[in-house]
Amino acid sequence: MKNPLIQFGNIPVDFAAVASLFPEIKCKHNKVSALEKKGDLIRLKQGMYVVHPDVSQKTLSLFLIGNNLYGPSYISLQSALRYYGLIPEHVFTICSMTTKPTQIFYNSMARFEYVHTDATLFPIGLREETICDGMTVLMASPEKALCDLIADISHLNLRYRKEILVWLEEDVRFDMDELFHFDTGILREYAKVGKKKTMIEQLIKIIES
């Protein structure tokens, strides 16, 4: 008989969803705990789990977990920039933006960091990216991810072209060839309602010059 957990695939699920698979068992908490100890379930945080890939036969996605662990949220900052190949470094924290308070979660899968963003900024430059097994995740476009990074670094307030170029090339190690293919429309939308308006407007001039 197939393991009933298979139906969840690689999508994170809460305690209630897991417990609903075993209506005949009175003590649901003991059952879920037993599944976790057996290794069939991986705990992501209190009351949220993902089925082990040996059971689900599905590849686990840290981005999909990131979307579901704390939301509404979308993958951004260094995680998105690395995904698009815009920075060379591997990113060991899954970085997301959320309209909820800033939060950090640690589990056996990874470190998940969520940075607060204003609700008016949330939909700007947002896209769905298809990942493993045809699943989709909410992710910032390259333009939005860079804007989020600029906004997130509190001490960063560069006003001149040379300063911005040095920061991108030396500190961020950004792929400058790709920068000049950026959609400046997204940057303009972000600058209207987001932080660091002057710096982002200067970035637009650099791209268009």
Kindly summarize this structure in a few lines.
With 209 residues, the chain is an alpha+beta fold. It has helices at 15-19, 28-38, 53-56, 62-69, 77-83, 142-152, 161-172, 176-179, 184-193, 197-208, and strands at residues 13-14, 41-45, 48-51, 73-75, 93-98, 103-106, 111-116, 126-130, 136-140. It is elongated, with a radius of gyration of 20 Å.
Low-confidence stretches: none
Largest sheet: 4 strands, mixed
Query: What structural class should be given to the helix and strand makeup?
Result: alpha+beta
Q: Tell me the number of structural domains.
A: 2
Give the % helix: 40-55%
The chain-level mean pLDDT equals 94
How do the SSEs run, as a string of H and E? EHHEEHHEHEEEEEHHHHH
Kindly provide the radius of gyration, computed on alpha-carbon positions and rounded to a whole number of angstroms.
20 Å
- Which assembly state applies to the chains in this document? single chain
Q: Roughly how many Å apart are the termini?
A: 64 Å
Shape by Cα distribution: elongated
**Biggest β-sheet: strands ordered side by side in the sheet:** 4-5-7-6
What share of residues are in beta strands? 15-25%
Structure annotation, total helices = 10
The overall strand count is: 9
Question: How would you describe this structure in keywords?
Answer:
10 helices; 209 residues; alpha+beta; 40% helix
How does the SSE layout of this entry go?
Layout: E1 13-14, H1 15-19, H2 28-38, E2 41-45, E3 48-51, H3 53-56, H4 62-69, E4 73-75, H5 77-83, E5 93-98, E6 103-106, E7 111-116, E8 126-130, E9 136-140, H6 142-152, H7 161-172, H8 176-179, H9 184-193, H10 197-208
Helix pairs in contact: 5-6, 9-10
